[in-house]
Design a protein that fits this description.
The protein is about 60% helix and about 0% strand. It is mostly helical. It has one domain. It is elongated, with a radius of gyration of 24 Å. Pfam families: TacA1.
Length: about 90
């Protein structure tokens, strides 16, 4: 778990409603880690947010698929693709 540190002033707030059981679980986790509830929650939110962003924006290929992709890029473009690229876009 990485700790979030910054030299900038923290001025943005995030409020959430939760059940007493959820709060108790978070309190216990923060206590066991020796950190504040705010810092524990922020660390976990940031880590999960970065993971979710990575999962939704990164493309991963196996080594075999990547080699096939590179080979496809090296092959000449099909005639239909060349013709399509010569057309003026309809959105302009």
């Amino acid at each position: 778990m990485t700790s979030v540190t910054t030299d900038t002033v923290r001025s943005s707030r995030l409020a959430m409603r939760m059940t007493p059981e959820q709060r108790s679980t978070i309190d216990k986790a923060a206590l066991l880690k020796g950190t504040t509830i705010t810092q524990w929650a922020l660390d976990h939110l940031i880590d999960d947010a970065r993971r979710d962003i990575e999962e939704e924006t990164a493309v991963r290929l196996s080594a075999k698929a990547f080699d096939e992709f590179k080979e496809a890029l090296e092959r000449p473009m099909p005639k239909a693709m060349r013709e399509l690229l010569r057309r003026d876009p309809e959105w302009l």
